[in-house]
Write a structure and sequence with these properties.
The chain has about 270 residues and is α/β, with parallel strands linked by helices. About 30% of the residues lie in helices and about 25% in strands. The chain contains ten helices and eleven strands. It has helices spanning about 55-60, 95-100, 120-125, 140-145, 150-155, 165-175, 195-210, 220-225, 245-250, 250-260, and strands spanning about 5, 15-25, 30-40, 45-50, 65-75, 75-80, 105, 180-185, 215, 230-235, 240-245. It has a seven-stranded mixed beta sheet, with helices on both faces. A four-stranded antiparallel beta sheet has the order 3-2-5-6, with helices on one face. The two termini are about 25 Å apart.
Length: about 270
């Protein structure tokens, strides 16, 4: 896939933009000029084969790895790439805590749950404005419990005793315990039973209705089709297609060319 294909993109104002982003990890050149935008209030899917650079892209946005070239811009502020931030410019990034303070939350593929802590303690760790569990925003908690009822049921249980699906729900709820402007989620359905995936889709649809902007890496194409407004497809560290998710979902030839499979037969 040498040529970049481009379809009409959303007219919504981009909240996040990547332009010519290169990322090196040690001696390895992983991202090779990544370009795409994440429109405000929408769900953008980031798809591609294993090893295409999707997780590296999320980690670069979050400042966990440095962009050696290009720029990452959030709401008009440059947050990644050479010259971003203060005092950290030589490494091409702002610090991750500084990026998080702008209202960006990251749910990694491994979820990052603290197994020995309770569900409530995990939630508290993600809350910047609360010092005790009782200090958490009660109204927001009830909203999150409506999305993820199991969390209320197991509020005082060690998080390590939750099922895989419940841990994933905790990871997402933790990222949303305070209002966030952008949510980065890496393969939330991986390893989950189909029924749990459907529950996760329903919860993410509710988040979408709140106009939370989401960038979602996902291998489950039923989820991608159900949630995605826009899509960027990666291959070998580059974006090779950008456009509406509905267009990709309705074009099996394009799916085969970009991903090597048809979405309808790979749920």
């Amino acid at each position: 896939m040498n040529a970049t294909t481009a379809a009409p993109v959303s007219t919504s104002k981009p909240l996040l933009s990547l332009s010519g982003v290169h990322t090196h990890i040690g001696a390895y050149h992983i991202l090779h000029g990544v370009d795409f935008e994440v429109p405000a209030g929408q769900v953008t899917m980031l798809l591609g084969r294993n090893g295409a650079g999707k997780t590296t892209t999320l980690r670069t946005i979050m400042g966990l790895w440095a962009a050696s070239q290009g720029s990452v811009t959030f709401d008009g502020q440059r947050i990644g790439g050479p010259g971003a931030g203060t005092g950290d410019a030589a490494r091409g990034r702002r610090g991750t805590p500084e990026i998080a303070q702008l209202g960006i939350a990251y749910v990694p593929e491994n979820m990052g749950i603290f197994s020995d802590l309770s569900v409530s303690e995990n939630m508290l760790l993600a809350a910047r404005d609360a010092h005790t569990v009782d200090g958490l925003d009660a109204k927001r908690l009830e909203w999150l419990f409506g999305l993820f009822p199991a969390l209320k049921k197991f509020w005082l249980y060690p998080a390590g005793k939750l099922s895989g699906g419940q841990k994933q729900m905790l990871a997402i709820a933790r990222a949303m315990v305070e209002p966030r402007r952008l949510l980065l989620i890496d393969e939330p359905s991986k390893g989950l039973a189909p029924a749990i995936v459907q529950n996760l889709i329903a919860a993410l649809r509710e988040l979408k209705r709140t106009e939370t902007t989401i960038l979602l890496v996902e291998q489950n194409f039923a989820m991608a089709k159900a949630l995605g407004d826009q899509v960027a497809v990666m291959d070998d560290g580059r974006v090779v297609h950008r456009g509406p998710m509905a267009e990709l979902a309705g074009d099996e030839a394009l799916q085969h060319r970009l991903l090597g499979l048809a979405l309808a037969t790979h749920q």
